[in-house]
Each structure stands twice: as C-alpha cells, then as structure tokens.
Q: What sequence folds into this?
C-alpha cells in the first residue's frame, strides 16, 4: 500500500473525503485486509484518545489562580511610569555653565599670570573648584596678591528648582 | 471584573488542559493559561460571539503554546521524531498493530499510558493530534493554526497516530512481561 493510499484511509476515518471518494475508499477497504487492519489501528488510537483530557484539572485553587490573573490584568492597565522630562533650556545650561566657567578661568589665568622671571621661577598661583558647587571657581595669585572668585548664577541647585517650576516641552 | 472572574473559574480547567496537552509541563501550562486569560481580558472587545467563549479562549492559549514551543524548538536541536519524519517516514513501514493496545485497561492506567506516549512525540506531531482529536479541528483549520500545508497536517497526523499506537503497544508489552 503506498503512502497516498494510507493517507486516504486516514482521511476516510476523519471524514475529510468528498462523498464520492469516500465510498470508493470504503469499498477498497472492504476488499483489502491490509487496508482494513490499518484503518482499525487508526480507529483504535483515535478511540484511546477520546475524552483523554476531560479529567485534567488546573493544579491551583480558584482564588490563587484568579489572583495571578488579576495581577496580570492590573499590570497591563497601569501605565508605564513616564520618564522625567528635562527641558531643552536646562540641558543647554548644564553644558554651557561649566564650559563658560572653564573658559573664564583660562582667560583670567592667561591675563593674570605674568611670564616667568629671569630666574626661571614661575609665579605661584592656585586655582580651586568647590566640589559642592561646580559653578564656583577661586583663583589666587599669591605673588600678585590677587584673588578671583567666579560664580555661576543661578547656582545649580537653584537652577534645578527653576527648571522644575517652569519646564517647556 | 467580577464577571470575568466567573468566566475564568468556569473555563480554567479546559484552558489549562489544552496548554498541558501541548506543553507536557505543568508549570509552563499554568503560566501559559494564566497569560491566555490576561490576553483574553485585553482582547475582550474583539470577541463577537462567532464561536463560544471557551473556544475563543482555547484559540488564544493554543497560539501562545505554539509560540512557546517554537521558541523551545529554536533553542534545541531537532527531535529524533522530526528527523525521522524528514528522512523518509518510518511510519509507512511500521507493522500494523492488530491488537488494540488499550483494550481492558482501567481509565487511570490508560490515561497514564497515553500521557507517557504523547510525551514522546515531537511537538508538531503532538499538536496536530491534540488539535484534531481534542479540539475537533479539520485539516484545513490545523494547517492555518500551525502555519503549514494540509498535506503536512495529514502526514503529521498519520505519523502521530501510528507512533502512538506503537508506543502504546510497546508499553503494554513491557507491562505484561
């Protein structure tokens, strides 16, 4: 028996053959022992599976299972937390403030530091940046007795507050 | 929400049974049936009553299981059964099982044997069988659900049945020896 014929037998069992073809196959089965035996085997397997999963039960209590489903639904309905919006103005200022501070200090340094004397000693200078406030710089020139303090205004924490009050999208 | 809870309570066993018959793993079946219910809630507006609610929910869980099984398949090598199928169809040459291997078995024992035998089939064969025998889907519907041709469905179904018959006969022989 070829494979095509075997599949036809199965289709007969499953009621998937058109009426005319079904009766032709049924006739062939009646005359062919091998075909009849195969059809019987397929029928037995089908019979064994009948109602097989009717007794399968979910291994969790109604309440527990529902609580999990409910949590899933709630998760679905809770909108994802929005990312804090940062204003364009604030972003620009965050970059510009430190950059301009560094530029000011460099320019001041170039203007205030005189060239090295004939002895070759450089003039003692000191520059400080307050860690707590990156917008404030102190420049001291001990030889010239000069101190320059550069402050960015508004201070960073104040700027953040202003941002929060008046952001624009 | 209370009405939906009632629907879950009413059909949860059926949805779980379908997930279990396809996945063969209790934990995964519970997770997938839970996911199916959440999806069901999400798509409730799409249910227009063309089929029963239980049938509609069953389709959701079947699709979730198929997605999961495909993921599993990608993660591991092809099963022996699948290779057999590709390499020329051993089911065609298998001798016919003339004696009903399940005859005279108690219900519990029969269940256990079928369970064991189903677990040895590849997911494609098992799913074809489950959709045909338990969901009473026609070849065309199975092909659509599984994304294959009707010819492939017929071939998988034939193999699954023959293999199952052989496995059940083998289990019977081992138990009687």
A:
């Amino acid at each position: 028996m070829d494979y095509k014929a075997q599949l036809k037998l199965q289709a007969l069992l499953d009621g998937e053959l058109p009426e005319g073809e079904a009766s032709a196959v049924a006739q062939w089965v009646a005359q062919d022992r091998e075909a009849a035996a195969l059809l019987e085997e397929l029928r037995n397997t089908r019979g064994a599976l009948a109602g097989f999963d009717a007794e399968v039960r979910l291994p969790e209590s109604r309440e527990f299972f529902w609580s999990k489903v409910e949590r899933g639904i709630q998760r679905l309905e809770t909108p994802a937390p929005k990312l804090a919006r940062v204003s364009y103005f604030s972003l620009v200022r965050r970059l510009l403030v430190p950059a301009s501070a560094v530029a000011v200090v460099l320019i001041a340094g170039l203007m205030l530091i005189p060239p090295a004397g004939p002895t070759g000693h450089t003039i003692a200078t000191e520059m400080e940046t307050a860690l707590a406030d990156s917008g404030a710089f102190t420049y001291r020139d001990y030889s010239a007795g000069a101190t320059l303090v550069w402050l960015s205004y508004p201070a960073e924490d104040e700027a953040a507050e202003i941002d929060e009050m008046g952001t624009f999208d | 929400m209370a009405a939906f809870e009632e629907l879950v309570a009413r059909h949860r066993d059926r949805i779980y049974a379908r997930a279990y018959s396809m996945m063969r793993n209790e934990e995964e079946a519970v997770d997938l049936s839970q996911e199916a219910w959440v999806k069901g809630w999400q798509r409730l507006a799409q249910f227009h009553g063309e089929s029963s609610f239980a049938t509609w929910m069953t389709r959701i869980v079947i699709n979730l299981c198929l997605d999961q099984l495909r993921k599993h398949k990608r993660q591991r090598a092809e099963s022996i059964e699948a290779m057999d199928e590709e390499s020329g169809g051993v089911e065609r040459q298998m001798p016919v099982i003339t004696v009903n291997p399940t005859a005279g078995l108690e219900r519990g024992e029969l269940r256990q044997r079928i369970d064991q035998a189903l677990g040895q089939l590849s997911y494609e064969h098992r799913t074809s069988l489950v959709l045909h025998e338990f969901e009473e889907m026609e070849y065309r519907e199975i092909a659509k659900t599984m994304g294959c041709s009707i010819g492939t469905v017929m071939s998988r179904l034939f193999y699954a049945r023959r293999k199952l018959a052989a496995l059940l006969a083998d289990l019977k022989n081992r138990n009687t020896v």
